[in-house]
Write a structure and sequence with these properties.
Helices cover about 35% and strands about 20% of the residues. It is α/β, with parallel strands linked by helices and about 400 residues long. Strands 2-1-3-4-5-6 form a six-stranded parallel β-sheet. A six-stranded parallel β-sheet has the order 9-8-7-10-11-12, sandwiched between helices. Strands 13-14 form a two-stranded antiparallel sheet. The chain is globular.
């Protein structure tokens, strides 16, 4: 049997010889549990909701290949007239070296700073168009990339109606989470713990904070700090493990408030998924979360500029991001505790906003409209009926 890398190479060579078919190919970490994997899967699901002809290219990540849903589709590499590549910005220089330049190529980069490094900026110039998952990313792209850029909201799974409040609630339960293998400085979990302590004195026993983290041994210092915080305050629980999607959803459902005192987010999956689950969201008013966490939909937290130090992130020279106010976050937590009806009203407004702009149906319609404008959905008169993403004719090509 050929090795997996050989099969990839063979599929690429065969794909370059096949005619382009109408529709969209989604390139991304489709079987990885990281946020970028969820971003790619959700954009594919939006395409599915719109009935777009789709094919897929899975870009595997070693030791992060834990989401099985798209595993069976990763070899469906039918060439399409358009291709959407969902990656972290810093991965685009490597990707473009082997990019098929026949389709209308669309980039969907994740990035958390206001300026772009030179190498990935040049890589994005190779694309015909760049789609931005948030207005924050769009601002950076329009400022620094000559390729056309447009806002294409990140798609999210949404239930038909906003979930009811947690049943049997005897305490106000807060949740924050982060990945140690990402930028801990950017996620800023220490500020969440500090805001919780500032909002609720130790005598207040009907509140609790759950800190969910995962990842390797990259930053043991933050783990030690969190263990000490939980030892000092028994209201704090630390969950340090990789959870399945279902288990993570259950953890979210079992809380009342999501707290994200990030220094920047390209989009902000945690805050968006919390709002979709009917949770009050307290979030730094900076980055992608500003699209959907407003004074009407949640509790945006004031911030002040903070220069990046070497090692905080990639290409930090001359860059700054947000330093959220722990005091303002604490006041927001007190407001939620004191006025649960107002918190629920904001949740309802936030859920309605997500439904309008980020549902699979809404994003799928936007994608369809743009691909139609580009001619990527036109079928030559002599073409047979196209095979959809679940058609066994495509599976037989694996």
């Amino acid at each position: 049997m050929l090795a997996a890398t050989r099969l990839e190479h063979l599929a690429r060579r065969i794909g370059r010889r096949l005619p382009l078919r109408p529709g969209l190919k989604v390139n991304g970490h489709l079987t990885s549990e990281i946020g970028l994997g969820e971003a790619a899967r959700n954009m594919a699901r939006a395409g599915q909701a719109a009935g777009l002809p789709l094919s897929y290219r899975n870009l595997r990540l070693a030791d992060r290949d834990n989401e099985p849903e798209f595993a069976a589709l990763r070899w469906r590499r039918v060439p399409r007239k358009a291709a959407l590549t969902v990656l972290g910005l810093m991965s685009f220089p490597d990707f473009v070296r082997a990019m098929d330049d026949r389709p209308f190529n669309l980039a969907y980069p994740a990035w958390e700073l206001s300026r772009l490094p030179e190498a990935p900026r040049r890589a994005l110039e190779r694309f015909d168009e760049v789609w931005a998952m948030s207005r924050f990313v769009l601002d950076a792209l329009e400022r620094e990339v000559s390729a056309p850029a447009r806002w294409m909201p990140q798609a999210l799974p949404l239930p038909p109606r906003m979930p009811a409040p947690r049943r049997g609630r005897e305490s106000l339960r807060l949740l924050t989470f982060f990945d140690v293998d990402s930028s801990v400085v950017r996620k800023n979990p220490q500020a969440a713990v500090e805001a919780f302590a500032a909002a609720f004195t130790p005598e207040r026993r009907d509140v609790e904070l759950v800190v969910k983290l995962r990842g390797g041994a990259r930053d043991e210092a933050v783990r030690a700090w969190l263990r000490q915080a939980a030892t000092r305050d028994p209201r704090i629980t630390v969950v340090d493990e990789t959870l399945s999607r279902a288990a993570l959803d259950a953890l979210m459902a079992d809380c009342d408030v999501f707290l994200s005192l990030h220094r920047s987010e390209g989009f902000g999956f945690g805050a968006a998924e919390a709002l979709a689950a009917g949770k009050a969201v307290v979030s730094t008013d900076y980055g992608g979360t500003a699209d959907f966490v407003t004074p009407e939909t949640g509790y945006p937290v004031a911030w002040s500029p903070r220069p990046l130090a070497p090692g905080d992130y990639a290409h930090t020279e001359g860059q700054s991001w947000a330093d959220p106010s722990v005091e303002a976050a604490a006041e927001a937590l007190k407001a939620i505790y004191d006025s649960p009806d107002e918190a629920r009203r904001r949740c309802e407004a936030g859920f309605a906003l997500l439904r309008r702009e980020h549902s699979f149906e809404a994003v799928g319609a936007r994608m369809t409209a743009r691909l139609s404008e580009l001619g990527a959905l036109r079928r030559p008169a002599a073409d047979p009926e196209d095979a959809g993403p679940g058609d066994p004719r495509e599976a037989s090509r694996r």
